[in-house]
Recover the amino acids of this structure.
């Protein structure tokens, strides 16, 4: 039945009942409503003179129909009169009416005529309650179904890409050239499919974009939508999952049906791991709504229904949790990995994000790219935006390099905190940060120091920033050992200069321990242990798999690993202590300058410590 009819049905029924009630009242119109009023005495006189043919008693009124005058026709209307009866009943009235020969009719009082309305009241209340409950149920359903009508709930919210004034193209994607080449082949196939079909080639059924958060997976999909020129549908995997069983599978079917009608087309599913996790994991059963949705996706991508020109593009930052059936050829044929950008890629990304931003002459994008190792594309975009906001707050007309430097420190370490630090704590903090700086300055393979500060930011009371001269894809043993020494340099400086240690080395010890354990148990960098994989856990995302995973080494081996990790840390602390003792004068000068200036750049650090020397042999 039509929704509009259902919506207005209660009001229609109420209207029909009211019309019937009014018609009934019209039919039951009493003579008293049509008569001329006379006195009671005149009424009795008419009865005595036998001029009355009909008498109607209704409540406290008496109506009388008068005889037609001689010569009146049958078509002439009968004249009625009405009189009010006295409060005290007249015992002679009925006798007088009988003697007059008039016909007597007794009707209920006019107040009783409203009994029909009283009888209709329960029905009216019932219809009103029905309408109220129906309207409330509709509102609840619309709210429960994500703001949509219940009939639209099973179709999901996969949106077709529409034309916008500002399209995203491949020119907006920088630093991911290999991924762009993989995805751009899809555009080439969709625009000229015959060139591939002549050689028997088929378009890949699915392309899986993998990589850390912020590397541009969704941006690459938006660029594909802008370049393809075909129907493009985008949705999130979490939108398939609902509390009702079967809804997710129905949404998948409807989405693929719509895409097949408009083939060639592209479907983009963001955050695929929300629905594509390994089936049968966990401690209980596995026949849940998520698995039914996954099964439907598998059947649509490569099942008995055949393969139309529909390409599925998906993005995830957890490829390790995906079901193997999704990753096999025939479903997601291509796996495109987007890694964190290197220095050149970061420079290209910064160039894209600053092309519409006014920059001061001192801005050096290659230097800024070199000073942001580990930043993703999203991090760099946020850095540019924060620098623009900082320049706007300062009333500047262009963004200067100092804005980028300040915002980089804010992104990495947090906002500046105003803390009331006691002089002895301030001195200890300067000694701690100077220890990191001195050890890094004189170790041969350590990254150069870019900046050291004792200004509290975020959760840190200070920081030592190191700027890698080149991108490293493998970490050699010498570099890792120097890194351990730098991490423990702050604690060692406190021990050597102040005679005791503090809790300020908490984060340093944690990072050093994790690095040393990885060197021993994962990378085989301990002579006593050797090249054996002794990691404690693969960090499975499912409790069931982690519980079921047996331990692969004995307690004796675990004890040897702990001892090897401790030996590496003790050796790194000893190297740091040797460097600090050897360069005591520069160390003292650096501590004093830090307490005076709070932040020192590379040139000021070199002025305090002198040229870097190879201290590896001295250690």
């Amino acid at each position: 039945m039509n929704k509009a009819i259902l919506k207005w049905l209660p009001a229609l029924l109420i209207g029909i009942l009211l019309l019937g009630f009014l018609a009934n009242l019209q039919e039951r119109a009493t003579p008293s409503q049509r008569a001329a009023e006379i006195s009671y005495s005149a009424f009795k006189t008419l009865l005595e003179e036998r001029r009355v043919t009909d008498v109607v008693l209704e409540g406290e009124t008496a109506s009388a129909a008068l005889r037609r005058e001689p010569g009146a026709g049958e078509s002439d209307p009968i004249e009625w009169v009405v009189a009010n009866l006295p409060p005290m009943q007249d015992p002679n009235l009925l006798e007088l009416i009988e003697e007059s020969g008039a016909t007597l009719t007794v009707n209920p009082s006019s107040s009783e005529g409203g009994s029909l309305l009283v009888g209709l009241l329960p029905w009216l209340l019932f219809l009103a309650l029905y309408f109220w409950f129906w309207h409330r149920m509709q509102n609840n359903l619309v709210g429960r179904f994500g703001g949509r009508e219940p009939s639209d709930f099973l179709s999901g919210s996969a949106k077709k890409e529409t034309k916008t004034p500002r399209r995203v193209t491949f020119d907006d994607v920088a630093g991911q050239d290999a991924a762009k080449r993989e995805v751009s082949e899809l555009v080439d196939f969709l625009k000229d499919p015959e060139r591939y079909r002549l050689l028997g080639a088929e378009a890949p059924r699915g392309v899986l974009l993998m990589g850390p958060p912020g590397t541009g997976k969704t941006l690459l999909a938006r660029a594909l939508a802008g370049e393809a020129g075909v129907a493009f549908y985008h949705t999130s995997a979490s939108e398939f999952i609902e509390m009702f069983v079967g809804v997710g599978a129905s949404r998948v079917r409807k989405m693929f049906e719509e895409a097949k009608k408009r083939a060639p087309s592209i479907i983009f599913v963001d955050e695929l791991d929300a629905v594509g996790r390994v089936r049968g994991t966990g401690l209980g059963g596995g026949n849940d709504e998520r698995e039914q949705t996954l099964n439907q996706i598998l059947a649509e991508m490569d099942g008995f229904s055949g393969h139309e020109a529909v390409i599925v593009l998906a993005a995830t930052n957890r490829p390790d949790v995906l079901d193997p059936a999704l990753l096999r050829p025939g479903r997601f044929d291509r796996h495109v990995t987007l890694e964190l950008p290197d220095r050149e890629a970061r420079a290209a990304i910064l160039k894209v994000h600053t092309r519409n931003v006014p920059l001061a002459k001192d801005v050096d994008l290659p230097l800024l790219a070199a000073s942001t190792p580990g930043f993703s594309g999203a991090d760099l975009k946020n850095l540019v935006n924060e620098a623009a906001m900082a320049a706007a707050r300062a009333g500047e007309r262009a963004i200067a390099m100092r804005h980028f430097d300040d915002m980089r420190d804010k992104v990495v370490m947090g906002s500046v905190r105003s803390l009331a630090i006691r002089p002895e704590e301030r001195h200890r903090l300067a000694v701690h940060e100077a220890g990191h700086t001195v050890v890094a300055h004189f170790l041969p393979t350590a990254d150069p120091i870019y900046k050291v500060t004792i200004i509290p930011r975020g959760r840190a009371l200070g920081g030592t920033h190191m700027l890698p001269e080149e991108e490293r894809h493998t970490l050699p043993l010498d570099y890792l050992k120097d890194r351990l020494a730098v991490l423990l340099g702050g604690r060692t400086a406190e021990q050597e200069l102040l005679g005791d240690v503090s809790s300020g080395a908490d984060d340093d010890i944690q990072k050093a321990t994790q690095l040393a354990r990885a060197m021993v148990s994962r990378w085989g960098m301990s002579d006593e242990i050797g090249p054996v994989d002794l990691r404690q856990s693969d960090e499975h995302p499912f409790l069931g798999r982690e519980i079921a995973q047996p331990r692969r080494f004995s307690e004796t081996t675990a004890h040897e690993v702990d001892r090897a990790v401790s030996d590496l840390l003790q050796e790194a602390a000893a190297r740091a202590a040797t460097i600090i003792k050897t360069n005591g004068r520069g160390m003292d000068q650096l501590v004093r300058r830090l307490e005076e200036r709070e932040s020192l750049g590379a040139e000021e650090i070199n002025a305090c410590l002198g040229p870097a020397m190879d201290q590896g042999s001295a250690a």
Notes: The longest helix spans residues 115-144. The chain has four domains: 3-115, 159-337, 349-413, 423-609. Residues 423-609 form a domain with the Methane Monooxygenase Hydroxylase; Chain G, domain 1 fold (CATH 1.20.58.760). The chain has a mean pLDDT of 78.
